[in-house]
Amino acid sequence: LVGAKLAADTTNPALSLGIETDSRYVLNALKNGQKFENEGFITTSNKSLIASVLTSFRTRTTPTYTKWVKGHDGNERNEGADKLAKEALSKDKASFVNLLQPPNLKVTGAKLTSMTQSLAYKAIMQMKTRKNGTKRKRTELNLMRIQNCVEDRFGYIPTKERFWESIRHKDFDRKTRDFLWMTCHDAYWTGTHWSRPNMPVDLQERAICSHCGVIDDLTHILTTCEATGQEIIWSLAENLWKRKKSTLAWFKPTLGDILGCSLAKITNPKNGKPVTGENRLWRIIIAESAHLIWTTRCQRVITNEGRHPSKSELQNKWTKMMNDRLELDCRLTNLKLGTKAIPKKLVLRTWKGTLTNEEKLPNDWTAKSGGLVGIAVEREEEGFG
């Protein structure tokens, strides 16, 4: 985008301008410029830059032509672009780019004819955010945890917008999406939420885990608490994941790993392509197990008045949860569901290697659900009583 802007700004205005690029993002920004302006750039990413780019092109009086070219095909132009890109990576600081727009070409607000209820709601939320000028510190801390964990595990840093989009993944049901959203915002009443100065003394005691004697926050509940059954549940998840024989070795998830499970990028070491079945199973195992740990803790503290569930009870709950999910996947392959159906190949890849007596099952076992197909659970006599 910056390159297109500089081309428009520096090329002789008496000459026609031709832009060849392998970036569809640039071409789409130019093609949909009128739409972005009509909507007041409310939902447009990089809005300041795109608005400035459009202004630079509108100041020209001669025609501008755009053409998409295939990238990295060995031609000299791509080699030059790659060379400049590598040089940019070694720069200590970014170059200054003037994004100011002439007042007569600056578009403000959205057209009434382009306004929808959804667009108006998003505009109101943006105005409230700018007015308040504050961010939730706990949320920002969790977002940093997610980015650090994804970088450590999968070698890339996701944007915050990418995370919020990922927790709405279709592999998650509504309760799981809500759980991930609430956990990232640290919106559940746990830990230091109870130790606020205006809290009665008897309620402030809830900030401490009655079993471990430490702050009972979500990190403690989901990863270290000895009373929630988290250790047993993560052990079950580990056993199932190891049966998958993935290139991603098992590790006990931290809070950042749990929240960022939807951002997993497990790739084939031979060709570097994502392994869809393993990525999907990872999302399901981590998110569902974490949610079960949370609900088990709530039942113990609120409903059961501190009574701890037995090891066999936890195993049965987890096994039923995973088998229910497997059953749901099989049902969702029904072609009668139309666009909402899940491809059979995706379901088969997801659960491959994790089923009981899998070698005796037909190639397509999705039609044999309902108790005939289930995950393989290793029952440890000493570990589960």
UniProtKB/TrEMBL annotation:
This is RNase H type-1 domain-containing protein. It comes from Lentinula boryana. InterPro entries: RNaseH-like_sf, RNaseH_domain, RNaseH_sf. Residues 1-90 form the RNase H type-1 domain. Pfam families: RNase_H (PF00075). It comes from the Eukaryota.
